[in-house]
Amino acid sequence: MDNERGTVRSARAGVTNAPPARARLPRSRRPVGEPAAPGSSWPWILMYHSVAVEEEDPYQLTVSPDRFAEQIAWLHRRGRRGVSVRELIRARELGRDDGLVGLTFDDGYADFARYAVPILQAYGFTATAYVVADLLGQDNGWDAEGPRKKLLTVPEVTELAAAGWEIGSHGLGHQALPGLSAETLAAQTRESRRLLEEVVGGPVTGFCYPYGAVDLPAAQAVHDAGYDYACAIAHSPLTGRFALPRCYVGARDGAWRLRAKRGRHRLRDTVARLRRGRRGARP
Predict the structure, then answer these.
(1) What residues contact residue 281 under an 8 Å CB cut-off, 6+ apart?
(2) What pTM was computed for the model?
(3) Closest C-alpha among 182, 274, 177, 179 to residue 235
(4) How far apart are CA 178 and CA 153, in angstroms?
(5) 101: phi then psi, degrees, rounded to nearest 5
């Protein structure tokens, strides 16, 4: 459709409109690397990709609908409610995030709407879908050895947003951000946000680093672009509001493995906070 093709053209044109490389970091009450509140930990956020039936899955990105339903049912039985990261962050600021777990779906696969959404709705859960702004309606061409998976189209993204699902940015073309020039980083973050806000008809406040890859320039570019938060994967020295750690969930993860991953998240979070405290105590 014309609107969809226009999105791709606009994204490519936006690279020339990037701000200067030395653009100053705007004052914000949410700086890059913002630590968790004293004595608290970062919330548990689960990272999914595709919910579908696939015979080949070399990157282990796919969870079958049946397995996904089991995982969501387990969360429900444990007294947890899955929510979007946007809702999780707001609840955390109000001290009301007890029992909440963030649910995220990277890459914006079309099977999110077909399989994941109905299961989540059955439990009253919400989630965040991070979509690639310049590839809406195309496929996951970046996964050279994996099966081709259709991505959400412009109308599908618009419909999901209108129904209350959070839509976040996954960049323009699923390109890892570390090592890119300041101009390209600005295009990947600012232009993808602008394009998606046109599609959803409202603010896009969440970003997810392609491949989970983040360094300080990338995190600062996301901050400069006006996002409220960003998701990474691993705990790192950058762990904070603009590099939220997440827990990978795959087809092998049943109740026992999910419990173990929850414990591992808490352990890694504690270690990261202790290391941050030691660095802060150095003269």
Answers:
(1) none
(2) 0.85
(3) 274
(4) 28
(5) -135, 135
| Per-residue model confidence as pLDDT tens digits over 35-84 | 444 345 789 999 999 999 998 899 999 999 999 999 999 999 999 999 99
> pLDDT (tens digit, 9 = 90+) per residue, 107-122?
999 999 999 999 999 9
Angle formed at CA 60 by CA 255 and CA 215, multiple of 5 degrees: 100
Closest CA relative to residue 72, chosen from 252, 255, 256 = 255
Which residues are paired to 198 by β-bridges? none
Task: Compute the distance between CA of residue 203 and CA of residue 194 in angstroms, rounded to an integer.
Answer: 9
The low-confidence residues of the chain, meaning pLDDT below 70, are 1-40, 275-283
All residues at 6 or more sequence positions from 21 whose CB lies less than 8 Å from its CB, including other chains? 181, 182, 183
CB 33 within 8 A of CB 217: no
Rounded Cα gap, residues 183 and 274, in angstroms = 35
Alpha carbon distance 105, 103 (integer Å): 7
Coil, helix or strand at residue 229: strand
Q: Given the structure tokens 């608290």, which residue do they identify?
A: 40
Q: How remote is the C-alpha of 282 from its chain's centroid? A: 33
Quote the CA–CA distance of 112 and 120 in Å, as a whole number: 10
